């Protein structure tokens, strides 16, 4: 049951206001279920572009529902006192009313449980870091919850939380955009260009990410890397009131990881480990490890035990995931790499990489950093797909020393890669682009890649 304290707080705040749930996907449905428990008889409106929701069984069976569906749904939303916004809805072109409250699951959750929450955001590395953190924390706490952008709506777990629960929350920029509360421990991993189709510019996207620590106090902790150029540039213009825990791969700060895989805390305490024992490939995953260990330090938990627990953690699907070997060629699935920086890290992380599959849906991202990297790296076989493939082909055709192959059918990528690769080399799917031109998400793209590889393995 939702606590009486939370119920009464929201009844006092919302009972006499008109409420609309904007977006009825996974999180929107979760918000509706939560609100219906608190307001069993109140009219709640569903606002969505999807007209098929008129036949949705959840809505048909509820007598206190109003539906605002179709192409004018954003205009319809303007008339409500309170809007619970779902993450996938962009308000770039929304006519915001000053009298209107825009709330979100993330803000509601942090209002009541922020003191028990470790929040993680960043352009890349979020899911790996929160999963690693949960794995470590389960070695210390009986009840650890992992929620948010990784797939579990925050309000779905409210009834499970006690005062002894610790929560790890993965925040997307969309979830943070309208928050007015922050987690007790906040981690900002990095900032690169992404989701520019959702925001008016790159600065707006970054400002949404910075919300994770905007409402912290001196009793809280903010964890970030001083190796991340954009983060360091931005922080000079931010009023961060919490304790800053900085980390680096260089001895520029009190917390740094040396080349011999020794983590120095405040340059006094140190933990050494065999980097080969850490199952996650790449320097960027050591970055995720440092951030996680600083969160453990902020909780005053023993670091030696934490590092031992971290060594048992395995990679998540679609994140530099080893798929298998065909005719001496190793295949890796990094479908989650949807920006150039992630692909660069993946290429640097996979040993003996020779063939890379790139391309997909164009969201207006600048690819010059990837083009420069590829021109300066060893010659690779590049298999290019989609509009982003066209962009890369155009930028590389006069300068690139490796082989470029443009294909139109994703079902041919593995066979093409195998024909280009030689024994004892690796093939990497790391697209540097969204999958939405051909797939519903990066997971579906990665699964299709793995399916092709596994078919060849079984032959």
* Helical proportion, percent range: 25-40%
- The second-level CATH architecture of the largest domain is 3-Layer(aba) Sandwich
What name goes with the CATH superfamily of the largest domain?
A: Mur-like, catalytic domain
Number of helices: 16
Number of domains: 3
Low-confidence runs: none
What would you report as the Rg, rounded to the nearest angstrom? 23 Å
CATH class of the largest domain: Alpha Beta
| Shape assignment | globular
Helix/strand-derived class?
alpha/beta
Largest sheet: 6 strands, parallel
CATH topology of the largest domain: UDP-N-acetylmuramoyl-L-alanine:D-glutamate ligase
User: Which strand order spans the largest sheet, edge to edge or round the barrel?
Assistant: 7-8-6-9-10-11
Mean pLDDT comes to 93
Tally of DSSP β-strands? 20
Structure description:
- The strands form 4 sheets. A 6-stranded parallel β-sheet has the order 7-8-6-9-10-11, sandwiched between helices. The protein has a 6-stranded mixed β-sheet with strand order 15-16-20-17-18-19, with helices on both faces.
- The chain has 3 domains: 17-103, Rossmann fold; 106-310, Mur-like, catalytic domain (UDP-N-acetylmuramoyl-L-alanine:D-glutamate ligase, 3-Layer(aba) Sandwich); 321-458, Alpha-Beta Complex (Protein-Tyrosine Phosphatase, Chain A), CATH 3.90.190.
- It is an alpha/beta fold and 459 residues long.
- The chain starts with a helix and ends with a helix.
- It contains 16 helices and 20 strands.
- It is globular and about 70 Å long.
- Helix content is 34%, strand content 20%.
- The mean pLDDT is 93.
């Amino acid at each position: 049951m939702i606590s009486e304290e939370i119920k009464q707080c929201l009844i006092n705040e919302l009972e006499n206001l008109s409420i609309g749930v904007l977006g009825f996907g996974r999180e929107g449905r979760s918000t509706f279920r939560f609100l219906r428990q608190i307001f069993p008889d109140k009219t709640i409106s569903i606002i969505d572009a999807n007209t098929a929701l008129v036949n949705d069984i959840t809505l048909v069976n509820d007598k206190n529902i109003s539906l605002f569906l179709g192409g004018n749904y954003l205009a319809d939303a303007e008339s409500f006192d309170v809007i619970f916004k779902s993450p996938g809805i962009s308000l770039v072109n929304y006519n915001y009313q000053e009298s209107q409250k825009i709330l979100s699951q993330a803000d509601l959750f942090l209002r009541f449980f922020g003191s028990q929450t470790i929040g993680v955001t960043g352009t890349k590395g979020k899911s790996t870091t929160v999963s690693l953190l949960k794995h470590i924390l389960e070695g210390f706490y009986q009840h650890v919850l992992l929620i948010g952008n990784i797939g579990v709506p925050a309000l779905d777990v409210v009834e499970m939380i006690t005062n002894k629960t610790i929560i790890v929350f993965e925040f997307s920029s969309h979830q943070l955009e309208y928050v007015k509360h922050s987690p007790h421990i906040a981690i900002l991993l990095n900032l690169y260009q992404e989701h520019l189709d959702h925001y008016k510019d790159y600065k707006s996207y970054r400002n949404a990410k910075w919300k994770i620590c905007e409402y912290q106090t001196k009793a809280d902790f903010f964890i970030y890397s001083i190796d991340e150029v954009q983060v360091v540039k931005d922080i000079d213009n931010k009023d961060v009131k919490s304790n800053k825990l900085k980390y680096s791969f260089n001895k520029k700060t009190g917390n740094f990881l040396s080349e011999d895989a020794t983590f120095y805390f405040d340059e006094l305490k140190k933990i050494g480990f065999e980097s080969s024992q850490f199952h996650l490939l790449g320097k960027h995953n050591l970055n995720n490890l440092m951030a996680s260990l600083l969160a453990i330090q902020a909780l005053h938990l023993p670091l030696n035990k934490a590092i031992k627990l971290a060594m048992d953690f395995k990679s998540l699907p679609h994140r530099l995931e080893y798929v298998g070997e065909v005719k001496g060629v190793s295949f890796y699935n990094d479908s989650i790499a949807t920006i150039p920086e992630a692909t660069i890290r993946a290429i640097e992380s996979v040993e003996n990489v020779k063939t890379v599959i790139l391309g997909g849906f164009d969201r207006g991202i600048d690819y010059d950093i990837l083009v420069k990297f590829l021109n300066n790296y060893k010659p690779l076989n590049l298999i290019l797909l989609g509009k982003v493939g066209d962009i890369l082909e155009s930028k590389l055709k006069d300068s690139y020393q490796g082989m470029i192959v443009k294909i139109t059918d994703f079902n041919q990528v593995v066979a093409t890669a195998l024909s280009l690769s030689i024994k004892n080399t690796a093939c990497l799917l790391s697209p540097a682009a969204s999958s939405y031109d051909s797939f519903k998400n990066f997971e579906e793209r990665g699964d299709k890649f793995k399916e092709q590889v596994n078919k060849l393995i079984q032959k």
